[in-house]
Amino acid sequence: MTTVLTPPTESGSHKEPPPLKPPPRRIGRWVLFGAMIVVAVIMLYPFFVMGVTSLKSESQFLSGGGFSWLSWSSLTSVIPVGQEVLSSTIVCSSSIFIILCVGLPAGFAFSKLRFRLSTVVFLVIVSAMMVPLQAILMPEFVNVTKLGLTGGYTGAILVYAALGTPFSVFLFTTYFRGVPDELIEAGIVDGLGYFGALWRLVLPIAVPAIATVTVLQFIQIWDDLLVGLLFIQNTSDRPITVGLAVLAAGRTTSIPELMAGSIISALPAMLVYLGFQRYLVKGLTMGIDR
Amino acid sequence: MAEITFDGVTKIFGDNIPAVDQLSLHVAEGEFMVLVGPSGCGKTTALRMLAGLEDITAGSLSIGGTVVNNVLPKDRDVAMVFQNYALYPHMTVAQNMGFALKIRGQSKGEVARKVGEAAAILRLTEYLDRRPKALSGGQRQRVAMGRAIVRSPQAFLMDEPLSNLDAQLRVEMRLEIARIQRLLGVATVYVTHDQIEAMTMGDRVAVMRGGRLQQCDTPQDLYDHPKNDFVAGFMGSPPMNLLRVGLETTDAGVALALGSQRLAIPASYATSHHLPRVDGPGVVFGVRPEDVEVRDGSSADSLTTRVERREALGAEILVHLSLVDVGGDNAIVVNDSGAVVARPTKLVAKMGPRSGVSVGDHLDVRLNPDHFHFFDADSGLSLRRGV
Q1: Between 1.10.3720.10, 3.40.50.1000, 2.60.40.1930, 1.20.210.10, what CATH number should domain A72-285 receive?
Q2: B107 in contact with A at a CB cutoff of 8 Å?
Q3: pLDDT tens column, B11-39
Q4: Which of A26, A196, A236, B50 is most buried (CB neighbours < 10 A)?
Q5: Mind listing the pLDDT tens digit for each residue in B160-178?
Q6: Integer CA distances (angstroms), B261 to A45, B273, B371, in order
Q7: Which residues of chain B does A188 touch, with a Cβ-Cβ cutoff of 8 Å?
Q8: B105 neighbourhood in chain A, CB within 8 Å
């Protein structure tokens, strides 16, 4: 018989090593990751449904099984998708062009030039952001109708530009306030005027702000139905959102075709967002770290 | 190259308080003029008016004999170096330096040649293709200098260009800027709040306070003959000791009353200065820290002091002294309620690194009688005759 002698410990008893616990930071990261997956599923599920549904014929959709390109091939015969996407593109890009052309110099002026009542004028312009579209839609419609601009793109472009400009003025002003005055002054001493400084010095460093305004306005205008429905009355000029609304409001609506159209409608906004995402984050957080 | 003249130039902002008040100053061709003063003294505003970045409320400002009050900045032919360099972040070093030339329509070859020359002077040749964010503070500062010198302007304007650099780099760039300015011989107006920069770089130094020019002189004249107690206290590190004292008659002649101690004033000061009458309002007496010398044993021309604090700076020691009143080590006078009603008169002395003084020591110090300064107790103006 053997006796195993264990060396005495200071406390007279064995000390168990502490159980391995994952550090709290790692747990927090997993919780966050899980939450993000849940959110991502919630956000992506509609797109999944749209995709799957669009790949069925009407009968397959009703029966629940099968795969077909029929809804995609028949979509162009139901609504002029190409023309509507083109219309949306024209309206969107023209509105954004006006918004940038007005917002950029206005933001520069409000942030860098000293003139009487500049703060009051700025506040009045920015306060327009608080007015909801629905509240001014009818007066806008009356005005645009009186000008005879409700047929083609012009009326809608002007309305979108008017609605988007206050936000762009606000964003550009905030951005340019973070640009040192000395940069502009150096350009002026070097031989530039204010327009020269805006064009040659400020514009190149305002890319994040320009991208932010462009993306946010693009998504807003591209996805809007109400203004397009009211202000673009020529059926040949109607944007994609109006086209889909017409499709949905038909006597017999093909859900797979509607889903295919919805994908076409949603895709450009998603691509623009993904393409400019890097600038968007930078643009929206500007001013925070200054 | 041109001369610059401020003639009664005034700038008033919205609050009706003049930021610059009747500034008259002449900068000769090729001269390095330093504007120095505490924050808010109007030196930067004066420079910005010269650059055309601020309107002039009154007076006239001329460059090369032409009044430029209403001339646009781009037409003044001056180059400016800013405190934060203001380099164009989206351009390379070469593009930054050549930008002003490009705007003026110079050919690409001419721009490249001038940029190359300036880069060689500033030792920037290998950095010409870099963007500002890839440069160190000192390199950025040199690019800002380069942007100014490629233009061969009539005048250089520099607004605290070294204040963002660390101490060692500041010393290097101080020498560099002075070297380049002498090399190019262009009239330069340099703004700083650092009196060491002012003393070491300027051909002349203009001291400003509250928008007004206090004195404009060579650095040594400013140091030796300040026109008022502000200049005396501002120029020099540590600043001049300024004590408000009374005058008394003693057996040895007129003396300064420093607490209970008396310090004889050499008779020559009665002729070289407008000293006020004895028992009058008194004067502000000034003596530089380097003119306070320790001596062995007390005498008629020495003061008994106590060491309150010592600051070892390596090459020298600054010793803070308080005058010892007869009958006590500490001259702080406290009333019945415990409030301090009088403090000991303080002096700062500059001593050698190996002077073995300790806090609490009693020292007999002699104030160099050849370098006394006297200022009017009310106006602060120097009492020296002929000022």
Answers
A1: 1.10.3720.10
A2: no
A3: 999 878 899 999 999 999 999 999 999 99
A4: B50
A5: 999 888 888 888 888 888 9
A6: 93, 23, 20
A7: 52-53, 73-74
A8: none
Binary contact (A186, B78; C-beta < 8 A): no
A201 touches chain B (CB under 8 A): yes
Token pair of B328 as six digits: 């006590």
What is the average pLDDT score of chain B?
89
- pLDDT above 90 for B80: yes
The question of ipTM being above 0.95 is answered as: no
Beta-carbon contacts below 8 Å between A and B? 52
- Could you tell me how many helices (H) and strands (E) chain A has, helices first? 14, 0
Domain ranges of chain A: 26-70, 72-285
Neighbours of B170 (CB within 10 A): 19
Q: Enter the tokens of residue A235.
A: 């059926």
Q: What are phi and psi of A118, to 5 degrees?
A: -60, -40
Distance from A189 to chain B by nearest Cα, in Å? 5
The span from the CA of A232 to the CA of A151, in Å, is 5
- Which tokens sit at B207? 């001291």
Helix (H) or strand (E) holding A267, with range, is helix A255-285
Question: H-helix or E-strand containing B116?
Answer: helix B108-122
> Taking the CB of residue A37, how many other CB atoms lie within 10 A of it?
10
> What's the token pair of residue B327?
């009958």
B174 phi and psi angles, rounded to 5 deg = -60, -45
CB within 8 Å: B86 and A186: yes
The residue among A37, A34, A36, A72 whose CA lies nearest residue A52 is A72
The answer to whether the Cβ–Cβ distance between A192 and B78 falls below 8 Å is: no
B381 shares contact with chain A (CB less than 8 Å): no
CA torsion through residues A51, A54, A55, A56, sign? positive
- Partner residue facing B82 (CB), from A182, A191, A193: A182
Nearest residue to A140 via CA among A49, A69, A226, A216: A226
Do B123 and B145 contact (CB within 8 A), yes or no?
Answer: no
CB B78 within 8 Å of CB B154? yes
Interface of B with A in 59-78 (CB under 8 A): 73-74, 78
Angstrom distance (rounded) from CA A273 to CA A284: 13
Decide: residue A109, CB within 10 A, 0-12 exposed, 13-18 middle, 19+ buried.
Answer: buried
Contact status, residue A242 vs residue A232, Cβ threshold 8 Å: yes
What pLDDT does A287 receive? 47
Shortest distance, CA B156 to any CA of chain A (angstroms)? 11
Please determine, for residue A26, whether its predicted confidence score (pLDDT) is greater than 90: no
What ranges in A14-132 are assigned the alpha helix state H? 24-54, 58-63, 70-78, 81-112, 118-127
Structural domains of chain B sorted by starting position, each given as residue range(s) with its CATH number in brackets: 4-234 (3.40.50.300), 241-376 (2.40.50.140)
Rounding to the nearest 10 degrees, give the CA dihedral for residues B253, B254, B260, B263. -80
Q: What is the dihedral of CA A91, A96, A98, A101, to 10 degrees?
A: -160
Half-sphere exposure of B207 (CA within 13 A, CB side): 23
The winner for highest mean pLDDT among B24-28, B255-259, B352-356 is B24-28
**Interface membership of B273 toward A (CB under 8 Å):** no
